[in-house]
Amino acid sequence: MSLDSSALFTDQYELTMLSAALADGSAHRRCSFEVFARRLPDGRRYGVVAGTPRLIAALASFRFGDAEIDVVSRFLDDATLQWLRKYRFTGEIDGYREGELYFPGSPILSVTGTFAECVVLETLILSILNHDSAIASAAARMVSAADGRPMIEMGSRRTHEESAVAAARAAYLAGFTATSNLEAVRRHGVPGAGTSAHAFTLLHTTPDGPDEAAAFRGQVAALGAGTTLLVDTYDITKGVQTAVEVAGTELGGVRIDSGDLGVLARQVRSQLDDLGATKTKIVVSGDLDEYAVAALRAEPVDVYGVGTAVVVGSGAPTAGMVYKLVEVNGIPVEKRSSLKASRGGAKRAVRFARDTGTVVEEVIYPARGPRPEQDGLEASDLLVPLVRGGEAVADADTLEESRALLAAGLVSLPWEGLKLSHGDPAVPTRFADSHATGRTL
């Protein structure tokens, strides 16, 4: 968070609920809330958990100082204001590790404490997890479509300035190679990348007309022959020829940002090879999403630059996660509204895989019940401790570890789970309890 306090990243009704609960004595009941998605976005086969470390950091700064109290004092009573001044989350949070896959019904996060200390966290939790998980889920599909080729996130100009930083981090988690966003480089250690835009080429215009060669000379002089030159400001064929004439056959790369990228990539590859620049890479950008990336897989493209599609979740800007109260003083509670029902009781989850590593099922079961077992299948517990006594656990995963976890998770999916076409979730989820064998979502 860029502000000293994250406490006002909150919807007002959370604090009016708090006020009413303090007044009627129910605020201190022991409760469990859970985060889950009832369904995946249309066309998706899996989701990616992302943003957990950002959430834990924001929780540490969830404090009501004078500035925050000044805002909420406009609608809250004195007793509630006094309670907020002393607010510290003292409960426990368990959750799926960042980089873990999730499916419909997966209990992604479990928050336990008093009703008062948990209810005020709803918006903070959902805003971070819904955004980052949506971006990481879209980015993971793009990475799979790229089939091992490097990808650069370059969508900062298409979203809010803070969202851009979080999106760059989530894309890197999902397997992107680098970002153009320097705040993400500073804040999260994501590798940076970038050279120049059309404006630099256009800058080198004289009364005699455009001077593309002068622009290329300037860039090479500053960044070396290993730089990537943007060759489609004017005529691509001439641009490629000029680029090699200026930088030599050791030119690092050329970028194409417009037109029929597949056709142009083939033409440019042939031209580069004929000019002796056989090692010069081709970078393509320009309104790419996972489908466009997949369509270019057979073309001589070396690097993809993805902007708008990744920072807006490629058609699914939210993961659709909800935060629901599931237990009060050990008693399961559940919402029964049509199409918005929840399943009561705190839960755990276990994922079963064959000895080959392929996942076959995720089973969700009561938190205080025995863990289900299946003969011949390997079981992996999914929820891990994140917060104890209000403090973050000491052995949290690093971004690089989360990145590796996701890469391994994608390999564990049944092969059809990586398809971009519509279909069922890659892994079925099933609720199981002591009274029934359970039901599959």
TrEMBL record:
Its EC number is 6.3.4.21. Gene3D superfamilies: Aldolase class I, nicotinate phosphoribosyltransferase. Residues 8-130 form the Nicotinate phosphoribosyltransferase N-terminal domain. One of its GO terms (molecular function) is nicotinate phosphoribosyltransferase activity. Transmembrane segments: none annotated. The keyword 4Fe-4S does not apply. InterPro entries: Aldolase_TIM (IPR013785), NAPRTase_N (IPR040727), Nic_PRibTrfase-Fam (IPR007229), Nic_PRibTrfase_pncB (IPR006405), Nicotinate_pribotase-like_C (IPR036068). It catalyses: 5-phospho-alpha-D-ribose 1-diphosphate + nicotinate + ATP + H2O = nicotinate beta-D-ribonucleotide + ADP + phosphate + diphosphate. It holds the Pfam family NAPRTase_N. SUPFAM superfamilies: Nicotinate/Quinolinate PRTase C-terminal domain-like, Nicotinate/Quinolinate PRTase N-terminal domain-like. Keywords: Glycosyltransferase, Ligase, Phosphoprotein, Pyridine nucleotide biosynthesis, Transferase. Pathway: Cofactor biosynthesis; NAD(+) biosynthesis; nicotinate D-ribonucleotide from nicotinate: step 1/1. Transiently phosphorylated on a His residue during the reaction cycle. Phosphorylation strongly increases the affinity for substrates and increases the rate of nicotinate D-ribonucleotide production. Dephosphorylation regenerates the low-affinity form of the enzyme, leading to product release. It comes from the Bacteria. Belongs to the NAPRTase family. Catalyzes the first step in the biosynthesis of NAD from nicotinic acid, the ATP-dependent synthesis of beta-nicotinate D-ribonucleotide from nicotinate and 5-phospho-D-ribose 1-phosphate. PANTHER family: NICOTINATE PHOSPHORIBOSYLTRANSFERASE, NICOTINATE PHOSPHORIBOSYLTRANSFERASE PNCB1. This is Nicotinate phosphoribosyltransferase. It comes from Rhodococcus tibetensis.
